[in-house]
Amino acid sequence: MTARAGGVFVAVDIGASSGRVILGRVGSDGPSLQIVHRFPNGAVEVDGTLRWDVRELFTQVLAGLRLASDSLEPGERIASVGVDTWAVDYGLLDNDGVLTSLPFSHRDIRSGSTVDGVHSLMPFERLYEITGLQFLPFNTVYQLAAETSLDHHRALLVPDLLCFWLTGRRASEATNASTTGLVDARTGDWAPEILTRLGLPADLFPPLIQPGQRLGLLLPEVARSTGLPTGTSIVAVGSHDTASAVVAVPATVEKFAYISSGTWSLVGVELDYPVLTPASRSANFTNERGIDGAIRYLRNVGGLWLLQECLRSWTADGLAPQLESLLTEAAARPADGPRIDADSSTFIPPGNMPDRIRDAIKATGAAAPTEPAGVVRCILDSLADAYARTVRQAVELSGAEVDVVHIVGGGSQNTLLCQLTADATGLPVVAGPVEATALGNIMVQARAAGLLGDSASLTDIRAAVARTADTTRYTPHGPGTAPKTSPIARNRRV
């Protein structure tokens, strides 16, 4: 790989609780990031339903692009822009391309009632044989079943919708499309059998495009609003934020597991092939598309949503605890405290999370903590145990080998969670970078621009990230420490 002169790119990176617009400069020493705009995000209540205010998100994107343009150094220009968000949620457009209503949030309860109806038309066993997608009651396939009518409508997943408003082009980026439950895990294309059996229009979603392909140029009105040239390209990236985050795992060895830790946790390994076995289905593992056709073999695990909701509830109750103090107090508590099932659907909706966690603890027969620090320790112990269990299952089901666990995203800053994960897995944990999603977004754009060389691989991208990534290594210790040769590392494909 021969790197070329540096360039400047913009990552629009929107999660379920916040968004960022980030300038990325990629040179011979690797990438560097400059956050130029942060803005809040969250589901809003509309007539008793939870929705995403995507119009406000687009307004914030435009504001961020204007700030990015204003932040350029003399002689710099933005080569392209890439957009990533969370998965599964979509907007419906009429024949004129007008959004008919705000998209539903996956945390709305509507799709749970459609699961049995979908499975009556197409049993989950067959769905999994085709898609390899784990069962989650809010997957797009179940949300679509809740629509009263799809006639004369077209659908765009949230990042594709934002790109449509930037360029005027409708397309479905492959990594995010693979989370819908409508994509064939083997071919990587829409699955006609599923669309037909469920009575969905064959052209409900537009054709798929791959990360690195150019979507188009900024619309003239967007260029005027942002101050960017009309020749600025929008490039498809891993528009599922986890797909972009996995690109930026700073792995220096091939045998690694990853945890993208944020509002949700995505825990798994990277494979060249989907795993579609009955055992994989029973374990509820998913096969999602990654960059360069890789398979992200993973499970959704409960995430820092539990902690975020607890902090919100405590603040509303007038306690206003400081997270840093809570983590210090939680770290001082014994390791044999209560655990909960962090994956339970009980914890998906917003609401009084501390009480739900205490109720879940009591249901196990354990004594529920009365102080916030005890609840925090329970959350982090439960997440670490879930991470370790999921890594072990990924190894057993796929035959992959794992020597190290990489934690990227916001959770990589939680030192207690990282250490507990090292202890639970018995493997070293490398934490960081925090902005892995934006880095992966930027690096896919840089490769598309030819800055990493014509034959740059994922390994090359990760090596470039590793040169500048801010990481911390955690060594397992205590009673849970694995033997010198970890059973996770020993498990081999047969």
Sequence of strands across the biggest β-sheet = 15-16-14-13-17-18-19
> What would you say the CATH architecture of the largest domain is?
2-Layer Sandwich
What is the gyration radius calculated from CA atoms? 22 Å
What is the residue-averaged pLDDT? 93
The helicity comes to 25-40%
CATH class of the largest domain: Alpha Beta
Distance between the termini: 33 Å
The coarse overall form would be globular
Amount of beta strand: 15-25%
Low-confidence stretches: 1-5, 480-487, 489-494
Q: What is the structural class?
A: alpha/beta
Named CATH topology of the largest domain: Nucleotidyltransferase, domain 5
Largest sheet: 7 strands, mixed
Domain Carbohydrate kinase FGGY N-terminal: 9-247
Family: Belongs to the FGGY kinase family.
Protein name: Rhamnulokinase family protein
Region (Disordered): 469-494
Would you kindly provide a brief summary of this structure?
Helix content is 35%, strand content 20%. The chain is of the alpha/beta class and 494 residues long.
Note down, in words, how this protein is organized.
- The chain has two domains: 7-239, ATPase, nucleotide binding domain (Nucleotidyltransferase, domain 5, 2-Layer Sandwich); 240-434 and 470-494, Nucleotidyltransferase, domain 5.
- With 494 residues, the protein is α/β, with parallel strands linked by helices.
- It has helices spanning 54-70, 115-121, 124-131, 140-145, 158-167, 174-177, 192-197, 220-226, 241-247, 278-282, 305-316, 323-331, 353-363, 372-398, 415-425, 436-448, 458-468, 487-490; strands spanning 7-14, 18-27, 30-40, 44-46, 49-51, 78-84, 90-93, 154-157, 172-173, 208-209, 214-217, 233-235, 256-261, 264-271, 286-289, 295-302, 404-408, 429-431, 472-474.
- The longest helix is centred in the C-terminal third of the chain and has 27 residues, at 372-398.
- The protein is globular and about 60 Å long.
- The protein has 18 helices and 19 strands.
- The strands form five sheets. The protein has a seven-stranded mixed β-sheet, sandwiched between helices.
- β1 (7-14) and β2 (18-27) form a beta hairpin.
- The protein starts with 6 loop residues before the first strand and ends with a helix.
- This is Rhamnulokinase family protein.
- It is an enzyme of class 2 (transferase).
- GO terms for molecular function: transferase activity.
- Its EC number is 2.7.1.-.
- It comes from Arthrobacter flavus.
